[in-house]
Write a structure and sequence with these properties.
By secondary structure, the chain is α+β, with helices and mostly antiparallel strands. It has four helices and eight strands.
Length: 211
């Protein structure tokens, strides 16, 4: 039997889903959004299959992090990230070369797509671009984005899946105050990598043969 923590969490989740659906239905009816954006995450794939994931959100005007951002700038951007509202069940048109697919986001605004090119991509570059366009909900101005997919060639012998926090970048997750200071008062440009991380991943990339 589920304990009361699980019951409360389940009820809260259901309430959030119904609230989001009602809010989205109302906004679609009156056409009122404060600006929308597609946030693609970096994807991965092989020469004959590409995988990309992303999210559709209200655009809160989060600025690009800079080295000289003030504490206030970082706090404001972090607040905007937490306060950003997802756009559930939105439809996104995905284009790669001659391939076009329409995908539907889930209740949290996340979408994912598996692209199978009509012919294998060439091995002359690692990063490939995927064009994204928001179809629904409709917007007065086009909402587009470009996703990037890392394609490993057939000569790749292994892949590396790694965490970032306290593995690549210093976060201080074992110390709550230090972690809060790093996350809320800093940004992606001020967080420091561990010594030797760049050389380690460069060695992973070059492999045993160094090629």
């Amino acid at each position: 039997m589920a304990n009361w923590h699980e019951v409360i969490a389940h009820v809260a989740h259901d309430v959030e889903i119904h609230y989001d659906r009602l809010k989205t239905r109302l906004q679609n009816r009156i056409g009122r959004y404060n600006g929308l954006m597609i946030l693609p995450y970096r994807g991965y794939g092989s020469i004959d299959r590409l995988y990309l994931k992303g999210r559709v959100l209200e655009d809160k005007g989060i600025t690009t992090p800079e080295d000289d951002d003030s504490i206030w700038d970082n706090l404001l951007n972090m607040y905007k990230r937490f306060e950003s509202d997802e756009i559930p069940y939105s439809k996104v048109l995905v284009r790669f070369q001659s391939v076009e697919q329409i995908v539907t986001a889930n209740e949290e605004g996340f979408f994912e797509v598996l692209i199978e090119p009509p012919s294998p991509v060439t091995e002359d570059k690692m990063w490939w671009e995927v064009d994204l366009e928001l179809l629904e909900p409709r917007s007065d101005v086009p909402v587009t984005a470009t996703g990037t997919v890392l394609v490993s060639g057939p000569q790749a012998q292994y892949g590396v899946i790694s965490d970032i926090d306290d593995t690549v970048l210093q976060t201080g997750a074992e110390n709550l105050l230090l972690m809060a200071r790093t996350v809320f008062l800093g940004n992606a440009r001020t967080r420091l990598p561990f010594k030797g991380v760049a050389a380690l991943y460069r060695a992973f990339y070059e492999g045993i043969s160094g090629e």
